[in-house]
Amino acid sequence: MVQKKTLRMGVAGAGRMGQIHINNILETRFIAVTAVCSVIQAELDWATSTIPNVKTFTAFDDFIASDGFDAVLIVTPNHFHRDQVIASLRAGKHVFCEKPISPDTKSAWDVYYESLKFPELKVACGFPRRYAAPYVEAAKRIKNGDIGEVVALRSQTTDLIMDNDYFVNYIKTSGGIFVDCCIHDIDACLFLLGQDKTPATAYSTGTTKVFPMFKDYGDIDDGMGLVTFETGDVIMNVYGSRNNRHGHHSMTEVIGTKGRILINGQPRLINIDISDDSGTRMEGPETQMQVFGLAFKHEMEAFRDWILEGKEPNFNLKDAAKAVSIGAALMDSLHAKGIENVKLF
Ligand SMILES: NC(=O)c1ccc[n+]([C@@H]2O[C@H](COP(=O)([O-])OP(=O)(O)OC[C@H]3O[C@@H](n4cnc5c(N)ncnc54)[C@H](O)[C@@H]3O)[C@@H](O)[C@H]2O)c1
């Protein structure tokens, strides 16, 4: 039997999401973490004590110039993504970059066009819904024509309300609800649509009823966006909320000429219903990790198999750049009306 190669990963960023990816890789065969870069010493100490024989770096330039890994996993704050993806490609490494590929339209397309100069290198933007079983199954059925031609898509990401300093600080640099949160919905819709359509118009509105201070950061706590495409035959509607009382609830609906598919219609943690004196209820998830935890593992396995075996993945870098364009256009629509007025709608 031929011994399979192991894909060696260098990881830039070992914070909240970086540690989740590293722990997943440690549990996955034929992929290993050999280097970690972080600007936080406590995270490097965590990496050294968690990962066998890992090299650590505090400067990205030293990390990317070093040997010993074939691919870079970028899990740093969004505004570093563009330069770090491009530097990784120029250093001859494959790249897996966390969403968004970059937080603004120009830099997102910079990454896409730069990647075309390196056809021998693979670049993935991580969107776990592309590897979550219900989304993968829905995409297969839509492609098969089970619901006819797609007419409309609507998708939401609503997160458990977090009223603390960490969260309010996070919002300040997140890029806004449509780029940070609904980017998952936009990408999921593009994945389910399965066609390379060009967006034409974007309209959005929202409120700051729950977190009035978000207005100062040009953001909202609840918002809806409406997107059309140049072909004029498909509508996309996204809804994002930082204000969900019952936990995390991502759902997506695709309406076709012959039927519809609803994905994650009810926010179920586990498929049981409990009945007692107060009626019947089910339990929902609190976090997106409870819903998409397995999908994060599957996307990393897919990245490995893409590089080691040439297996076609569900990742799509053009969609990742397009998703940023759409998210940014929805933020622009919000700002064009004046964020202080959004409560009036
Ligand atoms: N797919 C998802 O659902 C999901 C969820 C959460 C976060 N994310 C994404 O993951 C990324 C990281 O988010 P997070 O919440 O883990 O952030 P975090 O602040 O917890 O961690 C950021 C990490 O980047 C490192 N870092 C900062 N500047 C650096 C630099 N110049 N060079 C190298 N490392 C540097 C920090 O040391 C830290 O390790 C973001 O792009 C975010 O959008 C994705």
User: Poorly predicted ranges (pLDDT <50, ≥5 residues)?
Assistant: 341-345
What assembly state would you assign to the polypeptide chains in this entry? single chain
Provide the succession of SSEs. Answer: EHEHEHEHEHEHEHHHEEEEEEEHH
Can you tell me the overall shape?
globular
Kindly name the structural category. alpha/beta
Number of helices: 11
Q: Any idea of the CATH class of the largest domain?
A: Alpha Beta
How far the N terminus sits from the C terminus, by CA atoms, comes to 65 Å
Mean pLDDT across all amino acids: 94
Chart the SSEs and their pairings:
Layout: E1 7-12, H1 16-26, E2 31-37, H2 41-50, E3 55-57, H3 60-65, E4 71-74, H4 81-90, E5 94-98, H5 105-116, E6 123-126, H6 133-143, E7 150-160, H7 165-172, H8 177-180, H9 183-193, E8 199-207, E9 222-229, E10 235-244, E11 249-256, E12 260-263, E13 273-276, E14 279-282, H10 288-309, H11 317-336
Parallel strand pairs: 1-2, 1-4, 2-3, 4-5, 5-6, 7-10
Antiparallel strand pairs: 7-11, 8-9, 9-10, 11-12, 13-14
Helix pairs in contact: 4-5, 5-11, 6-9, 9-11
The chain binds nicotinamide-adenine-dinucleotide.
Nicotinamide-adenine-dinucleotide binds at residues 12-18, 37-40, 43, 60, 75-78, 80, 98-99, 126, 128, 288.
Domain Gfo/Idh/MocA-like oxidoreductase C-terminal: 140-335
Organism: Lipomyces starkeyi NRRL Y-11557
GO molecular function: nucleotide binding; oxidoreductase activity
